[in-house]
Structures are given as C-alpha cells and as structure tokens.
Design brief:
Layout (H helix, E strand, L loop, with lengths): L7 H12 L46 H7 L12 H13 L4 H10 L2 E6 L5 E6 L9 E5 L5 E3 L7 H4 L3 H7 L10 E2 L5 E8 L3 E11 L8 E9 L5 E10 L4
Antiparallel strand pairs: 1-2, 2-3, 3-4, 5-7, 6-7, 7-8, 8-9
Length: about 250
C-alpha cells in the first residue's frame, strides 16, 4: 500500500476548513452625533438568555432607618460601610434582625447601598439604590442582570471634558462663558427615559441628566446618554446624544 504524503501547510489548511476556522464578521459600534439617527449595527447574533437573573424585586429593601439606628447605636449618616468593616457587619445584622430578604442583604454586600426600586426591562433591568451614608441618601442608578450584573452608572456618565464639546451642548454653553458657575449635569438626579432594542438583539437604555448651575437652580437642558448592551447582555458602549431642551 502506498501512503499519500501531503505538505504540512496543506494539512493545516484542510484542518482549518473542516473545523470552520476563520475570521467572521466583527462588531461595529457607531458613535452618535447630533445629525445621525441613533443606530447600533452588528453582525446577527443569536439571542442569549442569562443563566439566571441575579437581581429582582426580592432584592428591594423598603424599611426605614430606625432599625439600623437602634441596632448600631449610631446615626445612619455617620455609618460608613465602605471604609469600616464593623459598620458593614452591623448594618447586615440589623437587616437580618429586620427579616430582610437574603437578596436584599446580598445587594447591600455587593454595593454598600439598599436597592429601593427595581424595574424589569428585558435583557438588562434598572434599579435605583440609596443609603444615608452615600451622598445624603440622594440615590444612584444601576443597570442590573447584564454583564456585569451590577453596573453603577455614576462613573459611566461622560465627564465635562467630553460631553461639552458635542455641538448641541457647546452651543448652549457659549452664553455662560468659562469658569465657576457654568452649568453641568447632576448625576444623582438622572432619570430613565426609555429602553429600546438595538440592532442585533441588543438593548439601548436612554437616561437624561439635568444640566444646572447649582442644585436648586433652573434646569437649562438635559444631557442624554445611551448605555448600550449587545445581544448577550454585555455592556459595550456609552453614547452622548444631542441636547434635550428643558421641559415645560
């Protein structure tokens, strides 16, 4: 019997063909401009359902602070579970004594805050959390059950060095000049506008952040930001959308 001997490079090519190896279509994310229609383009991706949703309504902790205050023997505003392990343990014990659900305790352990509101939106959900030891209990927005499954939006809102150069915002800011007193977005007062499906089966969540000179000053407009997830719930992009005028 004669054996057929092929060059090594041909064997590798045949193996790659048999295994379906090769470069497929990649993912393209378009950055929104003032003149474009919001769009996220991608290669078709099969919708994937997460193995489980970590957070739900059971993680909401609705009780007041009296129990924490009496159990820890100090004012809730003076507690700091971010820095002091004893404070964190005391708050957890107070929640257990108050018969808080295990999911609510787990959310506190993950964030140092209490989940106050939860809204199921589809692939990725929305939650608002707060605590008296964090920004005077004003609250913070989270996107939940995607990847990562607990995504705080505080650090993802574009800084002044980026959003103010988008044409519709720079035009609005021209009348205020530069220096102290110039209006800027107040992250703690952000609000969810809508959640829409993106191309390829992903999700796009729009938030408005009021632009003001001070906390009690008049709102001069809203910074609109889109947080984008792919079809598997992976966070992939932050987009600055055109200025939203103040509401009447």
């Amino acid at each position: 019997m004669r054996m057929l001997i092929l060059p090594l490079t041909l064997w590798v090519a045949m193996l790659a063909l048999a295994c379906g190896e090769g470069s497929g279509p990649g993912l393209e994310v378009r950055v929104q401009t003032a003149t474009e229609t919001p769009m996220l383009t991608s290669a078709p991706t099969p919708a994937a359902t997460p193995a489980y949703n970590r957070w739900g309504q059971a993680a909401v902790y609705e009780n007041g602070w009296d129990n924490v205050k009496s159990w820890c023997d100090k004012s809730p505003t003076s507690l700091d579970p971010f820095l002091f392990l004893d404070d964190e343990r005391c708050i957890e014990e107070a929640m257990r004594f108050d018969r808080a659900r295990s999911e609510a305790i787990e959310f506190f352990q993950a964030t140092g805050l209490f989940l106050r509101d939860f809204e199921e939106l589809g692939l990725v959900d929305y939650g608002r959390a707060s605590a008296p030891w964090s920004n005077q209990n004003r609250g913070e927005d989270f996107l939940l059950n995607g990847s990562p499954d607990t995504l705080p939006l505080w650090s993802l809102v574009p800084p002044d060095s980026i959003w103010q150069y988008e044409p519709s915002y720079s035009e609005m800011l021209e009348r205020y000049g530069y220096g102290p007193g110039r209006p800027y977005p107040w992250k703690e007062y952000g609000s969810l506008v809508e959640s829409v499906q993106a191309d390829g089966g992903g999700q796009r969540l729009l938030f408005d952040y009021p632009i003001k000179e001070c906390r009690v000053c008049e709102t001069v407009g809203f910074l609109r930001v889109a947080f984008v997830f792919d079809a598997r719930g992976q966070f992939i992009d932050t987009q600055i959308l055109p200025l939203v005028p103040p509401r009447e």
